[in-house]
Design a protein that fits this description.
The chain has 315 residues and is an alpha+beta fold. It contains four helices and 14 strands. It has helices spanning 2-25, 93-131, 141-181, 309-314, and strands spanning 46-55, 60-62, 68-73, 80-81, 86-90, 183-185, 190-195, 202-203, 213-216, 221-228, 241-245, 248-266, 281-289, 301-307. The strands form three sheets. Strands 1-10-13-12-11-14 form a six-stranded antiparallel β-barrel. The chain has a four-stranded antiparallel sheet with strand order 2-9-7-4, with no helix packed on it. Helix 2 packs antiparallel against helix 3 (141-181).
């Protein structure tokens, strides 16, 4: 009897559960509220773009002309530097030893010049004495010619000794220049934005994926704005602009026009994929952040709106 009604009861319960599941799944889920309210353009007509904060000298990636092991670092992140200040030094023990050898060779070359001068003076004196002899029977013509040739040879040896001094000085100067090349200095006044080296590490020469030192003048900061090529015609030189900090629309600042870089470049697409495909090109417009004391750092993104009211009226 129980088996007779058990299966229909289970079927009814399963059907009811399926109906409830369908009904609950068909409910409209309200959209999630944005964590931060989006920014809105302050102009009646504007061109929007994404801006990257950078130094007004652009971010300068410092490298080294010659590879080597870092022996000393003279700066720290956030430190202020003046043009010509020392940033870091490579190990220079081999160059110091080479400089000592070449300086010794220079001293030897200078001594050889003194010896050659003394020898030339002696031979000239002997030639003068021989030429003053009036009685030609006292000295032969061959002996007189031999002394004249000896003076000429001594003059050539003096010239060679002087040339050796010039060569030795050039070698000393070469080593001194190489020692100066391993002492890396800052090319501009600015601030150390990034420092990716430590004493004892090997510094390769040439272009590196991560700069050894990143610096720039951050007073004031600039904003590099990427404007879509379809809107590039709407941007006019000198147009005012406003930037909002990405993530907080309450932090905003007016911008001062600096320049338009007259070359449209491919837009950087930071998707993280192994193969990047970019179909959009952008015009880069440089603005300066006029407001001081703003909590903005180089490398941050900002939402920028450029005034295009005049273009909208002329259309």
């Amino acid at each position: 009897m129980i088996r007779k009604y058990l299966l229909p009861a289970l079927a009814v319960l399963g059907l009811g559960f399926a109906v409830l599941t369908v009904i609950s799944g068909s409910k409209t889920i309200p959209p999630a509220m944005p964590f931060v309210d989006p920014t809105s353009p302050p102009f009646r007509s504007s061109v929007a773009g994404t801006g990257i904060v950078e130094a007004n000298t652009e971010n300068i990636a410092i490298g080294t002309l010659v590879p080597g092991v870092i022996s000393e670092i003279y700066v720290s992140v956030g430190g202020k530097v003046k043009s010509g200040d020392m940033l870091f030094r490579l190990d220079d023990r081999d160059l110091k030893a080479q400089l000592a050898v070449r300086q010794a060779a220079l001293r030897v070359a200078n001594t050889n010049v003194k010896v050659a001068k003394a020898s030339l003076s002696d031979l000239k004196n002997q030639l003068t004495l021989a030429e003053r002899i009036t009685d030609r029977r006292a000295i032969s013509v061959e002996e007189l010619d031999r002394r004249r040739f000896a003076v000429q040879i001594a003059m050539a040896k003096l010239a060679q000794a002087k040339a050796d001094v010039v060569s030795a000085k050039a070698q000393v100067n070469e080593t001194a220049i190489n020692m100066d090349r391993i002492l890396v200095r800052t090319p501009v006044d600015g601030e150390i934005l990034q420092l990716k080296i430590h004493p004892g590490e090997y510094a390769p020469a040439g272009i590196t994926q991560t700069p050894l030192v990143l610096l720039g003048n951050v007073e004031p900061l600039n904003v590099r704005v990427d404007v879509d090529e379809n809107d590039a015609w709407r941007v006019r030189p000198g147009a005012p602009a406003v930037a909002y900090l990405r993530g907080n629309r309450e932090i905003s600042t007016e911008l001062k026009f600096v320049r338009i870089e007259p070359y449209v470049i491919p837009k950087k697409s930071l998707t993280g994929d192994s193969i990047e495909r970019v179909d959009t090109r952008v015009l880069q417009v440089i603005y300066s952040i006029e407001q001081t004391g703003l909590t903005v750092f180089a490398g941050q993104q900002m939402d920028v709106y450029i005034d295009a009211t005049d273009n909208a009226q002329n259309k």
